[in-house]
Amino acid sequence: MSKFVIETKDLCKTYEGVVPVQAVNKVNLQIEDDEFTAIIGPSGSGKTTLLNMIGGLDRPTSGQMLVNGQNLAELSDNQLIDFRLKHIGFVFQSYNLIPVLTAKENTEFIMLLQKLPKEQRDARVEQLLEEVGLADKKDSRPSQLSGGQQQRVAVARALASKPDFVLADEPTANLDSHSAFNLLDIMARLNKEEGITFVFSTHDQRVIERARRVVTLVDGEIVSDERK
Amino acid sequence: MLVKIAWRNIWRNTTRSVVVIIAIALGLWAGVFASAFVQGMMRQKIETVIKAEMSDFQFHRPGFTDEYLAKLYMQNGEEIRSKVGTEESVIASSGRLISMGMVGSAKQNGAIKIVGIDPDDEAAVTGLNEQVLDGEYFEGVMRNPILISQATAEKFRVKLKSKLILTLQDVDGEIIAGAFRVVGIYKTENVMFDRMNVYVRQDDLRKLIKIETGLHEIAVSLNDHDLADPMATKYQVIHPDLSVQSWLDLATGMRMMVDMIDVYIYYIVGIILVALLFSILNTMLMAVLERVREIGMLMAVGMTKGKVFFMIMLETLILTMIGGPLGLLISWAFVTYYGVNGIDLGGAYDEVGFSSVIYPFLDGRSYLDVTFMVVIMAIVAAIYPAIKALNLNPVEAIRKI
């Protein structure tokens, strides 16, 4: 029987306002271990809201959001922070590295929050930067790296905590073709060789083509779910 | 790592951080130096009051200092003085006869306090001999010599060897007069005191006011000013029929001024620190608001609110810990330099009894107090920006993951 890393049950999110907006509407989605999934859809379709709820950054209005069987709605803010630290890796569209830290320190940062011993941190940082092809840039600060390089550091950082899955929001949106393909190659390899689960929200056809599963959202609802 | 991030964050905007550090240093310098100036001024005032005017404590008949009636003298004054002189803490004492009277020169008349002294005893207590600018300190064989202040000489338009007529009441209340000749002109740091007091030899005054034995006032100098109150209390118990008062009670308002001075210093430093507080708060708030996205990301990836709070606090504290000691160092250099060389105010405060040259002074405790206040200020200044950072919603902060 397959193990669902991520499972949503009738997940809804409504933003209250003068005109309430139903951003996500009764979404039922199961993502298994080792998947390489792209969530696509037009702007305003609810991709980001869904990803935010999967990542425990936003709370659903109704329905259940389960990660490894844990209902995130039952966790307090601090428990959610701890949960994210242990179980989820994030890759942001704008890289969002800590500008005052080097590539090595940015990658190490999550492990410091996890209070891992120095030897373990050093070994993992070396391995991750090697895997994303930035071993020679470990002492460079983000401002000294190209966009593609920064995003690769972000991937290394996301993997540093050995998360159950990595959420990536438009990871290639700010990258040129070469950097985008390079990044996708790295993520696909990590998925295939190390079994890391990736979930993307994207518009990028290059990502969609590489994804093994494509979930399409329109007006907050899943309109198609294709596996390749 | 948090310390490393906080330290590097500070230097992301070097100009802004340097400006804040300079602001802290200058603010602290202003506060400390102003405090040192006031404390030095008060210290000198106290020294002047004790040394030249009041001594550490005095004996009188009750009510004598209200009207200076000649009949209110201490019959056994010399005996009391001898006994007090045996105390280990007593450096010197001076017995005085005092009379309020009129002084007249060829050109001017006015009220004056006539103090009859033993020149050697008075010199030991007040150092009056060292204040003589012109002429002699009761030396020579001149009959009825009188020592007047420079201010009195100018007011009555007299000079050395000029004749002055003193008119006063004797012990029976009869009006009597005596002719005196100016033997010397003195000047203390207190112009107000100088205008009021002239000195004559005790024996000369004794004959005029017809008091054969006894004293109106006994002034006692101690080796430690802090002993003035306990000694006064002790001798008040021994001589309940007399009024024994320390300089704090003798100099009107001095006790209040001494009590107020610490509060006054804290107010000065406090006001400056409040201004600094808002400067730091403004800077840190800007630093937080500029990094909303970054802080949101930190919280998104697993940094607890406590750590975010601590990081912002740390940045403020580091800024303060650089600016603070720098300010204290500059302050210490200024206080030390001017503490030796003085600040000449050109007589601005002469009229209210303060010295023309102020030697700033700040004790070690005050430096510690100011440092403590700066640290507290920095913590308070950091709290609001840190809370602002805490209240950021990661989703809103980074807009989307």
TL;DR of this structure?
Chain A has 228 residues and is an alpha/beta fold.
Key words describing this protein structure:
heterodimer, A: 228 residues, alpha/beta, Rossmann fold, four-stranded antiparallel β-sheet, 10 strands, globular, B: 2 domains, 15 helices
Tell me what you see in this structure.
The complex is a heterodimer of chains A (228) and B (401). With 228 residues, chain A is an alpha/beta fold. Helix content of chain A is 36%, strand content 29%. Chain A has seven helices and ten strands. The two termini of chain A are 20 Å apart. The model of chain A has no long low-confidence stretch (mean pLDDT 89). Chain B has two domains: 2-49 and 256-398, no CATH class; 62-241, no CATH class. Chain B has 15 helices and twelve strands. In chain B, the strands form two sheets. In chain B, strands 2-3-8-5-7-6 form a six-stranded mixed beta barrel, surrounded by four helices. A two-stranded antiparallel ribbon of chain B has the order 11-12. In chain B, a hairpin with a 4-residue loop joins strand 2 and strand 3. Chain B starts with a helix and ends with a helix. The mean pLDDT of chain B is 88. The A-B interface holds A 48, 51-52, 55, 57-58, 77-78, 81-82, 84-86, 90, 92-94, 96, 98-101, 105, 108-110, 112-114, 157, 161, 167, 169 and B 1, 4-5, 8-9, 12, 293-294, 297-305, 307, 394-395, 398, 400-401.
CATH classification class of chain A: Alpha Beta
Q: Superfamily at the CATH H level of chain A?
A: P-loop containing nucleotide triphosphate hydrolases
Question: Using DSSP, what is the number of strands of chain B?
Answer: 12
Beta-strand portion of chain B reads 15-25%
Instruction: Please identify the structural class of chain B as seen in this structure.
Output: alpha+beta
Mean pLDDT of chain B: 88
Domain module tally of chain A = 1
Give the fraction of residues assigned to helices of chain B.
Answer: 55-70%
Query: Biggest interface: chains and residue counts?
Result: A-B, 33 and 23 residues
Number of helices of chain A: 7
Biggest sheet of chain A, strands in spatial order? 6-7-8-3-9-10
- Inertia-based shape of chain A: globular
Spans of chain B of at least 5 consecutive residues whose pLDDT stays below 50 are: none
Label the CATH architecture of chain A.
Answer: 3-Layer(aba) Sandwich
Oligomer category: heterodimer
Strand order within the widest beta sheet of chain B: 2-3-8-5-7-6
3D shape of chain B: elongated
